[in-house]
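Quick log. Single chain, no ligands specified.
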Amino acid sequence: MSKEGSNKTSNANGTSQYEYRDSHIRRKRNKFRLTFVKTYRFVFDILLFYIAWILFRYGRLFDLNPYGFRYNYYVTIGYAVILYWLKKTYNADLLGYSRIRSVVISQFLSQVFSAVIIYFGVSFGWQRFKNPWVFLVLFAVQLAIDILWSYYASEYYFRIYPKRKTLLIYRNEIDRKRFGAVKGKPIERLYEISDELQFNGSFEELEDRLSNYDAVFVAGVNSDCRNGILKYCKREGMPGFFLPHIGDVIMQEATHVKSFDSPVLYVNRTIVDPVVAFEKRAFDIITSGVAIILLSPLMIITALVIRLYDRGPALYKQTRLTIDGKEFKILKFRSMRVDAEKDGVARLSSGDKDDRITPIGKFIRKCRIDELPQLINIFKGDMSVVGPRPERPEIAEQYYETMPDFRLRLQVKAGLTGYAQVYGKYNTDPYEKLEFDLLYINQMNMLTDIQLCFATFSILFSKESTEGIADGATTALTNQEHADQPIDYDEV
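-> predicted structure:
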């Protein structure tokens, strides 16, 4: 029977046998793909844990005593738990979605920190530092496995699973450009945007067209249409990628109120729990205090080098905003010329292209050394270790004019690191920066803070994280593609 003939026979839901068969095949293929990835990860993790157990056992990490052999099991289990948590922190298992180099770095960072934590735990437990040769061997073996696994697993994955034919649906040019970040990224090897559709109609007008694709990217369409696409993706097993609205992110924080007969969700301004506030402040004091002591030699050397280069001040003070719009003076190592803003205009850096940055400044920016004096701000209580990045009042005012919701970032204290800093870039669009910060505010707790602290190390290996704004721009509002037209964020 031909395709046209098969479409004449429909089930109770109005779906043809042909369409149902295609839908069933797509769901089955998607399920097998996900199962393959999870199984591959599981086998890889078991291999790493087995290697660790062999080295802990035969490397005589512990003195021989009646319980020594059992302790090796305990240490291996502890190592496995910490490694699993850190792999989640670094997204070390995003097979196909990250570059091979990024996967290797994420895997190795997870293993290094896991081994270091276990080593110091063992050493303090036995009240003496053991010979770390076991961990050095572990690093070498696991790094070799990481490189081989990341390369061959990625290549095999792409070989057996071809690109998915993908439809990009957007409302206007701004939405299309926001999703343009897919181009040139590793994810492009998984999803090929074969068609782009500017659309803001009803889902019923779109439903038949979706059956011709294996995945869909959605940006900015109206709520009714987007809800229809969401349900379609769930029902048909089609991967769907959606750019959220601010309202979507806020609703993630909503609490189910059980006093009503209907499923009612409660939303209000974020009030930090007193226990969480106490934990964060204690964490800030301890972390910043220890870091200042340990990093003081590096900070002194950096200050001297900057001072000797052009005889200017080593530190740079700048007014920034924190919780409830309170102003404070942030401290940074000076990376620009002393007269960088002699025209009185507040502007962000354009990165390596910015001639205001000194040669020393380029190095300390790349290594994030210029941020170290902010540990003093954290110790004083101006900032927190984790929180929204503090903006300059002048730049924030420009954002408020087109995007009043940007003030929602001020519900909590500003921070040195956070979601926007780890998963975004220096020139991240302010709307997307707000979404990142709201995601953090929604799930703010000590475990999230600790994860973000570990995840911050990964951006040291990311060149994209230090990209500046476009030449001639003063804020991220006029950055790159957005420079050619105004943005109405009330409609984004």
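Residues 350 and 468 are 4 Å apart (CA to CA).
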